[in-house]
Specification:
The chain is α/β, with parallel strands linked by helices. The chain is about 20% helix and about 20% strand.
Length: about 600
């Protein structure tokens, strides 16, 4: 990245301090006994400080009464994102699919799924979104294709050019049953059972890291890599602004050529309660996070950058999904050889490493870990929920909704919101009879399905308190609407004087200030229960979040908050706080109720 420009001042003593905040470099020259002019700040690219909103299309808004969300439903509600202060939307897959995994099993990468609409609907969505100033990202699923795709059918038949399009392998004779063939290795699917499935027509096994109907592409085949570029180019030509890239850790598996011509067994985990068919029985040494996959990501970034150079316009982005340890995750940004990767890898630490049991020190540690490991020039991001995990208030506590949204909006970098977090939606109840998630159906039973089901986080959005929460005018919905929709819905929160949505609006509006887009940060735990996050920038107001993540009332000392000069003014407060916007904070002691969060505004540091 280009280095920041320095502003000039005449002084006897000059101290240079370079800071990295949200991937943006800026410089301050401090002088003793003089008033500083505002620093000259590097303009940000559109994505570097955006609010990104994930839409789960099937559950967002149904326009035709069939109980399934669709593109016209999204079009009808695009103004919601403008009102919420969102900059970009990302839609979970909308491509042609048998819907075994609800769009993550794509049978035609070049067309729109009929339940969602038509290509004309998509083009209309793009046109309206762009007219409203919204960027539109698509969900790109390169790891696998539906077994109903033409790619897979041609590969089964060994058609020229498609013989090795997927991961095919011979099995082993079963010593206990001459008529049976054993899988090539002990690899376990993410949805349970062997990751290998026998195909009687081809007389070989194919690999599926997820559902049986999701066959893994062979990324050691150059033709597959070329086709992925073709798919991305097609949608960028349509006007998409980039992609969220799915399931990247599973893109590459061990090369049989390095293991005597066979796929090696993953080592056993040694955890006694897991059976060979259960996820956790093995350690995915040969099936996840292989170093070769990063080369593919770097090539995709080269394509995206080349596309921008050739076509002009705004940056087309690649955001990667990667549940991996922090070291492997950071490689998605790029490597020490100067190769550039995804514009950012999603940060799932709030999902994987924090919960209602976490204390303030845990929060600070997990946040600073990401910022510490992030490479120079990287852009941070924060994800509090998605379609694969329990909703944010369910994993944490209802009282923490505004504080968590405040953290999301005040931390440097990109703020990611999952559909419903702006109004504090909780998991809906989905019975075994109503369960449709393939993972829950494969791994669970009537007594255990809830341990695996992703359906509760996918129940329809709560628009109002009318029938089916205003999601559809039809008689039923594809998943049941959560029972609390009359209490938690957008229409009510827009009318109420104090609500989660209004807090969210205040926070997204606050993000337009230079202190948050370009400022430095300081973060500490003031106790086991309360943390602070300070954002500061020369000649701009200082903003401080204090957040009690605990379950008991906590009294803190504000004189321990770095860069905060009292008096301060409440700028945003959580809905259950006794303090409101405009209240003055003058004393050095502050008592916060459980879950209470305050954003304080103070004078700039001298």
């Amino acid at each position: 990245m280009k280095s920041a420009k320095l502003f000039g001042v005449t002084a006897i003593v000059m101290v240079g301090l370079a800071l990295i905040a949200g991937g943006v470099t800026w410089a301050v020259l401090a002088t003793r006994g003089s008033t500083l002019p505002p620093p000259e700040l590097k303009p940000l690219d559109w994505w570097e400080h955006c609010v990104l909103y994930q839409i789960y299309p099937r559950s967002f808004k149904d326009s035709d009464g069939d109980g399934i969300g669709d593109l016209q439903g999204i079009i009808q509600e695009l103004e919601h994102f403008v009102e919420a202060g969102v900059d970009a939307i990302w839609m979970s897959p909308i491509f042609t699919s048998p819907m075994v995994d609800f769009g993550y099993d794509i049978s035609d990468f070049y067309n729109i799924h009929d339940e969602y609409g038509t290509m004309e609907d998509f083009e209309q969505l793009l046109e309206k979104a762009h007219s409203l100033g919204l960027k539109v990202l698509l969900d790109f699923v390169p790891n696998h294709a539906s077994t109903e795709s033409q790619y897979f059918k041609d590969s089964v038949q060994r058609k020229a050019g498609f013989e090795d399009y997927f991961m095919w392998a011979d099995g082993f004779p079963d010593p206990n049953n001459a008529s049976n063939t054993l899988p090539p290795s002990n690899w376990v699917s993410q949805f349970g059972g062997s990751a290998w499935e026998w195909n009687s027509e081809r007389q070989q096994f194919y690999l599926h890291q997820f559902a049986v109907e999701q066959a893994d592409f062979n990324f050691r085949n150059p033709d597959v890599q070329k086709e992925m570029i073709n798919i991305m180019k097609f949608w960028l030509d349509k006007g998409a602004d980039g992609f969220r890239v799915d399931a990247l850790p599973y893109l590459m598996e061990a090369d049989p050529a390095d293991h005597g011509g066979r796929y090696p067994d993953d080592p056993l985990s040694g955890i006694s309660h897991f059976q060979p068919h259960q996820l956790g029985y093995t350690i995915p040494l040969y099936t996840k996070d292989l170093i070769e996959l990063y080369d593919v990501v770097y090539e995709w970034r080269e394509f995206a950058d080349r596309y921008l150079e050739e076509r002009g316009g705004d940056t087309r982005v690649l955001f990667s999904e990667a549940y991996a340890n922090v070291t492997m995750t950071m490689l998605y940004y790029g490597n020490e050889q100067g190769e550039t990767g995804a514009h950012l890898p999603f940060n799932f630490d709030f999902i994987t490493d924090l919960s209602a049991e976490s204390n303030a020190r845990d929060f600070v540690y997990i946040i600073l870990r990401w910022l510490t490991y992030m490479p120079y020039g990287g852009v941070a991001n924060w994800v509090f929920g998605n379609h694969d995990n329990n909703r944010m208030p369910t994993r944490f506590r209802d009282s923490m909704v505004d504080g968590l949204n405040s953290l999301n909006m005040l931390l440097p970098g990109v703020a990611v919101t999952y559909q419903g977090e702006e109004i504090g939606m909780r998991d809906g109840y989905v019975s075994w009879e109503d369960t449709v998630d393939v993972e829950a159906c494969n791994r669970g039973d009537p007594d255990t399905y809830h341990l695996y089901s992703r359906d509760p986080a996918r129940t329809p959005f709560h628009w109002d308190n009318s029938s089916h929460a205003g999601f559809t005018i039809g008689p039923s919905t594809w998943l049941p609407v959560a029972d609390d929709y009359t209490e938690i819905n957008l229409a009510k929160q827009m009318e109420d004087p104090i609500s989660h949505f209004k807090v969210y609006q205040e926070l997204s509006s606050l993000r337009k200030e230079k202190t948050l887009s370009h400022g430095a940060y300081d973060m500490r735990a003031l106790s086991d229960h309360t943390l602070y996050l300070t954002r500061y920038l020369s000649s701009h107001d200082t903003l401080v979040l204090v957040f009690n993540v605990g379950e008991i009332t906590d009294t803190i000392r504000l004189d321990r908050v770095a860069h905060l000069q009292l008096p301060a003014t409440v700028s945003v407060s959580s809905i259950h706080s006794s303090r409101r916007k405009g209240d003055q904070i003058t004393g050095e002691q502050l008592t916060l109720s459980p879950g209470e969060a305050l954003v304080l505004r103070a004078a700039p540091n001298s």
